[in-house]
């Protein structure tokens, strides 16, 4: 009964910690992909299309330039829409998106970095977006809050069992399930 109660008390904290871990894991994966891409060979490609996508958030709009480009590796044609790793998690102002649309005009030549082991995987920019910083920060925050709340809940639960200083035990004594676990 003690363990069941402890699991029930700590389950929400574990969930919050897991969410934080997912944020950190994804940010680290994108960073690792960008570091690996720095060693990829390059080829020339041609922009097929560049359009601005509007992203509706709760209280504001963000914009992203969606670029589609073509390139060839060993006489095989490929097409991609990835500018950099982590791009889908980012947005910005309309003016930033417009600048990118000017940079990636349809028909213009671009340098494409492609994975030699899987040539269909490519990027135009060898950068990691600033969003990865906030993703790491949110992940650390979730983990910290989960650990803090879990610690407080654990201390409270153990205090109810009389395992802490007597002045912290309620006057009515420890719950029945604590008696069996001692």
Question: Can you walk me through this structure?
Answer:
The protein is of the alpha+beta class and 182 residues long. It has two domains: 2-22 and 135-181; 40-125, OB fold (Dihydrolipoamide Acetyltransferase, E2P). The protein is 45% helix and 25% strand. It has four helices and five strands. The chain has helices at 2-37, 94-103, 131-160, 176-181, and strands at residues 42-56, 61-73, 76-80, 109-115, 118-123. Strands 3-2-1-4-5 form a five-stranded antiparallel β-sheet. The chain is elongated, with a radius of gyration of 26 Å. 18% of the residues are buried. The mean pLDDT is 81.
Total strand count, please? 5
**Helix amount, in percent?**
40-55%
CATH topology of the largest domain: OB fold (Dihydrolipoamide Acetyltransferase, E2P)
Uncertain parts: none
Count of the domains: 2
Question: What structural class should be given to the helix and strand makeup?
Answer: alpha+beta
CATH architecture of the largest domain: Beta Barrel
Largest sheet: 5 strands, antiparallel
Order of helices and strands: HEEEHEEHH
Q: Tell me, what's the shape?
A: elongated
Question: Whole-number average pLDDT?
Answer: 81
How are the strands of the largest sheet arranged? 3-2-1-4-5
CATH class of the largest domain: Mainly Beta
How many angstroms does the end-to-end distance come to?
12 Å
Number of helices: 4
> Rg to the nearest angstrom?
26 Å
The amount of beta strand, in percent, is 25-35%
